[in-house]
Amino acid sequence: MNRQGSFWNRQTETMPREDIEGLQDKLLRATMDRVWRGSPFYRRKFKEAGIDLRDIRGRDDLRNLPVTTKLELAAEQRRVPPFGEVPSADPSSFATVVGTTGTTGVPLFVPLTPSDTCEYCTPDSETWLRTLHSIGYTGGSDVLQSAWNYGFWYFSASCLAFGRDRARPPHIITSIGRTAWQLDLMRRLGTTVFFATQSYVLYVGEKARELGIDPSEELSVHSVVGGGEPGLLSIEGFRERLQRAWGPRVDAFESAGASEMGYLGQECWAHQGLHVPEDYLLVEIIDPSSGEPVGPGEHGEMCITHLRREGMPLVRYCIGDVTSYEDEACGCGRTHMRLQGIVGRTDDMIKVKGLKFFPSQVESVVACTDGCTGEFLIVVDKDQSEVLDTFTVRVEADCGPHDDVAACLERDIRALVGIRPDVEVLEPGTLVRSPHKAVRLLDLREDGAEEKHDKKMAYAKRLD
Ligand SMILES: [Zn+2]
What we know:
By secondary structure, the chain is of the alpha/beta class. 29% of the residues lie in helices and 23% in strands. It has 13 helices and 20 strands. Strands 1, 4, 5, 6, 7, 8, 9, 10, 11, 12, 13 and 14 form a twelve-stranded mixed beta sheet that branches. It has a four-stranded mixed beta sheet with strand order 19-18-17-20. A two-stranded antiparallel ribbon has the order 2-3. Strand 17 (372-382) and strand 18 (389-397) form a beta hairpin. Helix 7 (179-189) packs across helix 8, helix 8 packs across helix 10 and helix 11 crosses helix 12 (403-417). The model is unreliable at 155-159 (pLDDT under 50). The chain binds zinc ion (ZN).
């Protein structure tokens, strides 16, 4: 069901394109000046590429700059711990530090100043309020409920719990898991908007049905917002399945973000893509082989430059997300560019037996299965004939191995991702813990995967 949304900041959100680009040029010059003065890492990088700060007058000059990669930042942060010489601001001005989850084995630290926290979804955040209004919040009687796996990366969760005025509805922070209790809470507190990973949003909807609850009839939820798994709602059938679970009165939205970049965008009620707050981020979609920008509707790699960040602004940061964009005004009236679904984060998605899914989907099942410690490892390989993929999920049982856990997981993982795994139940404490998000995938179909995995584990142990 579509609830027409409103605007939090109509003037900025509906700016003509030339005004958006003019504002971006101005903010970009200020950012480049800050980076040049404050960040030895970037000064070195630009000098090596023969770039002078005065060469950067606006967005058209950006393509002359080298891109920044995650591996490069990780190497720099290992060279000069903890932040490398990347930050542009003095450490005395840092309000907090967030980090990437280390899915690819290279966790990053991202220091934020008080002003930077507003790029994330804090109560004072402009982007957060724009988002709420774009999905139908009108300052009425909404109650928000968030069920994320609150780790180190998601600091804003605690901030969200505070700061209530007419602009901000009350927000209940529940963390992931204990699904029957989540549903009970929704009913008793009158939750209207539910935020979680796409997989968990689906899981909660289906669990409700299993428990005999029709979410559309018996709960007040009118919107569910999935994030953290870029592109999952674009996967064929996923949105329909979500809609079936939650019922016709509930609208499903996708949002996107990354620890290094902050909030990247979200679908509005018109569902024509994810609006990027272009006065906070300058997003280029480039052809990864040539580095040249691609046009609207064409697929390319997303490359992002911060426009207001103080602590550790990143310039032309390529995170590996493949997407396309449109910059015509949306049906909702907003003019900021729309990402047409993120096709995937190149380093996260797994393809097994022709089906694509994210490790976080398996995680959502493991997290909700009684008797598991929550730790798991997905192992993908080829069978003896070297033709078919094999799919194994190793988990730890709370009180030693038992068969029920394996049977439940095989059934529930198959229901969510479409393939039945072989589940190996191990003793508690067998799998290596990572201090951030654990390494969840060992893909033995890749050359040198085992050695690479061992290195990641050794790295995780060193950090622990
Ligand atoms: Zn829109």
